[in-house]
Amino acid sequence: MEPTSTRPPSIAWSDQVAVFAIVELDRSGYVQSWNSGAERIKGYTREEIVGEHFSRFYRPQDRERGVPERLLASALAHGYVEDTGWRVRSDGALFWAHVTITAVRDAHGTPTGFVKIVRDLTASKRADDELNAFLRSFVHDFLSPVTAVRGYVDLLREGIGDTDEMLRHLGATSDHLLAMATALAARVRDDPPPRRDEVAHVGTLVREAASLVLPGDLFGRLSFSIADDAAVQGDATELRRAVQNVLENAAKYSEATIDVIVEATADTVDIVVRDRGRGIHPDDLSAILEDGVRGRLARDDDGGSGIGLASAARAVANAGGTIGLESSLGRGTTVRVRLPRAADETGR
């Protein structure tokens, strides 16, 4: 049967979709159809808006910059385009929108128009903005005392010297806190610090991380085997935090000795952390490195959040490495961090 019209098929079914605005545009960007979700989100009735150009949904400064036209051109070139930003309702109020514009073509590939899908994310943006405002205030207030503590440590060193072991632990811990607070401050300012590319000696890095988790190891819970203090390349602070997170997990879920092993080959360095705790359920192993996943054996009083291992996995990946887990119920978990050796050590 021959089609009765070359016009794209009606999208009247879209009136049943109230969460999204679904708008059909012609090739020039003029509104051809308008669903109930569009009326709810943008405020115009179908009679008011059909035949009007879609650029009226954009702020004056965005129209002057040619944003609507650039979006249509990008959709034509790539098939679709996505954009998130401020849009204008019929009463002039702004809302935060996620927009997808898809180019529509006929059977011969000739562009016939566009379908525009819009979701109102104003409530989510408001919540995000409030959270960011809180974080900026918190980081500002937190950074000052941490910086002061670091200054007091320096004063103590001047009076006591660097021979006191507890003072060395306090210095390392305050350095770690200051680095974390500084990184958080930069991130909430939407100015993430550049990732440093430096040579870090793994044995030193591992012992520093251990001193942050179990300062002084007063109960002898850690057993070290560091055959070769090989070096790796990456952000030392980020890698130290990764090892710290792995050790914290081992210390949290096991009360027995924790083996910390550094093994090196010609090209890689392995950091192995082996505990003798409750283990991870086999069905959880595939997802345990994802954000927020704690596993079915976790308890409310453990104090975990499902963030530590995921953060460690990201830091290791940033350094070109991998992280793997083996676990046996009731016998413990082994985490193996594998990192490439520094280029100057491998001759690359």
Automatic annotation (TrEMBL):
Q: Name one Pfam family in it.
A: HATPase_c
* Transmembrane in keyword set: yes
Query: Its catalytic activity?
Result: ATP + protein L-histidine = ADP + protein N-phospho-L-histidine
One GO cellular component assignment for this chain's record is:
plasma membrane
Task: Please classify the protein's predominant subcellular localization into one broad category.
Answer: membrane
InterPro entries, per the entry = BphY/WalK/GraS-like, HATPase_C_sf, HATPase_dom, His_kinase_dom, HisK_dim/P_dom, HisK_dim/P_sf, PAC, PAS
Does Transferase count among this protein's keywords? Answer: yes
Q: GO molecular function terms here?
A: ATP binding; phosphorelay response regulator activity; phosphorelay sensor kinase activity; protein kinase activator activity
What SUPFAM superfamilies does the record tag this protein with?
Answer: ATPase domain of HSP90 chaperone/DNA topoisomerase II/histidine kinase (SSF55874), Homodimeric domain of signal transducing histidine kinase (SSF47384), PYP-like sensor domain (PAS domain) (SSF55785)
Span of domain PAS: 22-79
Q: Where is the Histidine kinase domain?
A: 137-343
Q: What is this protein called?
A: Sensor-like histidine kinase SenX3
